[in-house]
Amino acid sequence: MENRCEVGPSGNLSLYTDHLGDPICRVAELVVVSGSDDRERREIVGAIRGCIKTVTCGTKLSRNANNIQKVKSLPVYTKLAYILGLRVSSSHRRMGIGLKLVGEMEKWFGENGAEYSYMATESDNHASVKLFTQKCGYSKFRTPSILVHPVFAHRLRLDDRFTIIKLCQSDAEALYRRRFSSTEFFPRDIDAVLNNTLNLGTFLAVPRGESWPGSDEFLASPPESWAVLSVWNCHDVYKLEVRGASRVRKALFKTTRILDRAFPWLHLPSVPEVFRPFGFHFLFGLGGEGPNAVRMIRALCASAHNLAKDSGCGVVATEVANHEPLRLGIPHWESLSCAEDLWCIKRLGEDYSDGSVGDWTKSPPGTSIFVDPREF
Ligand SMILES: CC(C)(COP(=O)(O)OP(=O)(O)OC[C@H]1O[C@@H](n2cnc3c(N)ncnc32)[C@H](O)[C@@H]1OP(=O)(O)O)[C@@H](O)C(=O)NCCC(=O)NCCS
C-alpha cells in the first residue's frame, strides 16, 4: 500500500519509503481492509502508526535552597503521542477512512494517558493539513526545517582548529540531561535513545588539543566554545527513493557522480543516487555554546558526512527549529531540504499533570527543539 501512496510536495517528484519490515515501526499500528469475506482477496487500504512518550513541554524556575539568588530552569514533562505513517490508498480516498484512523488512534492515545497528540507533514500537503486542522481539531504548532545534505563520493575536510571526541553513552547522557533537558520535545528516556543500536554515537567538538575531562568537570567549566551532535542510523531501518524524475535529470545527476568518483581530489559536489532506494543518517541532539559553536557544528557535520559516506548513505539529514542559532553551521542543499515541516498539535486531556506550563498548544516556540530520531 505504501507503494501506491505518493507522499511529497505537489509536483511530479514524490518520496517513497520502504520500511524493510521495520520491527520498530512503533507501538501501535492500525489498518483498514476492504474487500469481500474472502481473506485472500482482501487488501489493506489504510494504515496509521502511533507512539507515546514523555517529553519536555516547558520549564519552571526553581530556587536553590542554599542560595536564593541562584535560579535554575527545570523541565516540565508531558505525555505526548505522535501520529506517523497515515496512508490511505488513492482508490479509497475521500471516504472518511483517514478521519476514522486518526479517531481510532487518538482513542488508543487517550486510553494510554497521552495528554497531547501531534503529527508532522509538509506544509503544502493540503489533504493532510485540512484533515488534521479542520476535521480533527489540531492547530498549527511549530514549523521546523528538515535540512538535507548529499553524501559526496569524496570525503570532506575537517577543520583542524577543532578536536572531535566521541563520548561514551553515560557521558553523552549526562551532557544531554544537564544541558538540553529544558529544550522543547526533549525525550525523558534519552538513555533509551542513546543506548539504541541505531545510535552511532555522540560527538563533541572542542578547541584543538583539548581532551574530555569527564562529564562533571566538563559541565562545571566547559571551554569557551563547544558543540555536540549525535548520529542515528536510519540506513538500516528504511530506505527512501525519489520517484518521478525525468531521464534527462537522472542522466545529469549520474554524470556529477561519475566525475566526483573519478576525481575525488577536486571536491566536486555530486548528486547522490536518490532515484534508487537509498539510506541516510539522521543528526540529532545538535547543540553548543560560545563564539565558535557554529563553526564547530560545521566541523561535526563534515565528520558525520564522512561517516555516512563510509556507510554507503545517500544523504545526511537533520531537523532543527526555525530560529535555531546553529543552523548557519549546518551545510545543506535547499533543493533537497524542506524549509517548513509543519507540526500540528492537539490537547487530548484536560487534566493537565503540571499546571505551571498551562496549555502547551498555546505556548510560543523556543529557539531550539529536540527532534527524536526514532520518529524521523
Ligand atoms: C491525507 C490522507 C491520509 C487523507 O485520507 P482520506 O481517507 O482521503 O481522508 P478522509 O476521507 O477521511 O477526509 C477527511 C477530511 O480531510 C480533508 N481532505 C482529505 N483529502 C483531501 C484532499 N485531497 N483535499 C482537500 N481536503 C482533503 C477534507 O476536509 C476531508 O473531509 P471532507 O471529505 O468531508 O471534505 C490521504 O490523502 C493520503 O493517504 N495521502 C498520502 C499520504 C499522506 O500525505 N499522508 C499524510 C502524511 S501525515
From TrEMBL:
A single GO molecular function term of this UniProt record: acyltransferase activity, transferring groups other than amino-acyl groups
SUPFAM superfamilies: Acyl-CoA N-acyltransferases (Nat)
Domain N-acetyltransferase: 1-159
Record Gene3D superfamilies: 3.40.630.30
Domain of life according to the entry: Eukaryota
Protein name stated in the entry: Acyl-CoA N-acyltransferases superfamily protein
Organism: Perilla frutescens var. hirtella
Taxonomic lineage from the root: Eukaryota, Viridiplantae, Streptophyta, Embryophyta, Tracheophyta
